[in-house]
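Appendix B, example 12.
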Amino acid sequence: MADFGKRFASVRRGHVVPDGHSAVSMNRLKVLITVVTRAKADFYMDHIQSFGVNMQMVIYGKGTAPREIASAMGLTESDRAAIFSIIGEDKLKAALESLEEKFNTIVGGKGIAYTIPMASVIGKSIFNFLSDNRDAVRRNEK
């Protein structure tokens, strides 16, 4: 049991040390949730993808705020898109700042964005793909 703790102690510190290989620093992943008007969903998906996001999913729905509140907030349309994106923690600040700038400057482009941490990913290849680590994905394919 003590051997198990030694072998995987580096994983808890954010590094993976496979048997016989050097340490590989791992970037933590977050789920970025962006809620925008349905008409602007494709624009925001393309914009978020420019930050090295390899996986996105969009769910369409309707806003539930009372019409008076929505009008007061400048939200005239009730059709919404919730975009779920997997993004590396190292790219998150730039992505959120850019989204905030777009929310404030694009006509009809208001929205909200927030993140939740990803607790775990099973599989090194999957993690490398989600982390936009193309070199590691290629090495694993060989």
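Helices lie at 2-12, 41-49, 67-72, 89-105, 124-130, 134-141. The first strand starts at residue 15 and ends at 16.
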